[in-house]
Amino acid sequence: MNKTILHCKDIIKTYGSGESKVFALRGVTLDVYERELLMIVGPSGCGKTTFVSVITALLPFDSGTCNVLGYDLATMNEDEKALFRGKLVGFVFQTFNLLPSLSAVENVALPLTIAGEKRSVAIQRAKAMLDKVNLSAKYHFIPAHLSGGEQQRVAIARALVHNPAFIVCDEPTSSLDHKSGQIVMELLRKMTKEEEKTMIVVTHDNRIYKYADRMAHMEDGKIIKIEEN
């Protein structure tokens, strides 16, 4: 078994108070391992997105323990959490979140330029990452001139360009047709192995379950079973 990079135990997350209190997470316990592609699956509203928001330090939690890459998320302040995300986490979203006025290479370079990298170096690294997702011919295309699958591959390149330790993908294929979704998942799986990354994929798209190393099934704020492929 590969090294554990994430250990969460008995995570509780609520919204509201008193009679209006809602339990989003009801004691979630999960270990995630280096170089695996883990899928978190379950119906809408079961707590999947809340859980990944907790493990990426976007949301505080009420109780329990969450240790990610040696960081105790419960003890970090907001500045430390922002540094943690900027350095160690990559994000891929359902809606791509590309800036429409920037070319593919400029979109991919953005995390590096925000972090203070020289523009020439950022562009060079962005081109290298676009090469890895098979978009060498599309460096200078704006998002409107790319297909949905190509836009998602740009988003994957952007998520990987700063060399994060793990990548969280929130419904990465649900807005894509079957063929584009398969290409994206094959790419994510390849990146997991070749780039030695850990991928956490939140999805309810059963067409892509076969790409997971393990699947954590969530229901009503809990992980009810973990399945190995």
Task: Describe it.
This protein has a single domain, classed as P-loop containing nucleotide triphosphate hydrolases (Rossmann fold). It contains six helices and ten strands. A six-stranded mixed sheet has the order 6-7-8-3-9-10, sandwiched between helices. The protein has a four-stranded antiparallel sheet with strand order 2-1-4-5, covered by helices on one side. The chain starts with a strand and ends with a strand. The relative contact order is 0.20. The mean pLDDT is 92.
Q: What are the low-pLDDT stretches, counting only 5+ consecutive residues below 50?
A: none
Q: What's the CATH topology label? A: Rossmann fold
Count of the separate structural domains: 1
The computed structural class is: alpha/beta
Q: In percent, how much strand structure appears in the residues?
A: 25-35%
Instruction: Give the overall form.
Output: globular
Helix proportion: 25-40%
Q: What's the total helix number? A: 6
Question: What keywords describe this structure?
Answer:
229 residues, alpha/beta, Rossmann fold, 6-stranded mixed β-sheet, 4-stranded antiparallel β-sheet, 32% helix
Any chance you could write out the topology, listing elements then pairs?
Elements lengths: L3 E12 L6 E12 L3 E5 L6 H8 L7 E6 L2 E2 L5 H11 E5 L10 H11 L4 H14 L15 H13 L5 E5 L7 H17 L3 E6 L10 E6 L2 E7 L1
Parallel strand pairs: 3-8, 3-9, 6-7, 7-8
Antiparallel strand pairs: 1-2, 1-4, 4-5, 9-10
Helix pairs in contact: 3-4, 3-5, 4-5, 5-6
Briefly summarize what is shown.
By secondary structure, the chain is α/β, with parallel strands linked by helices.
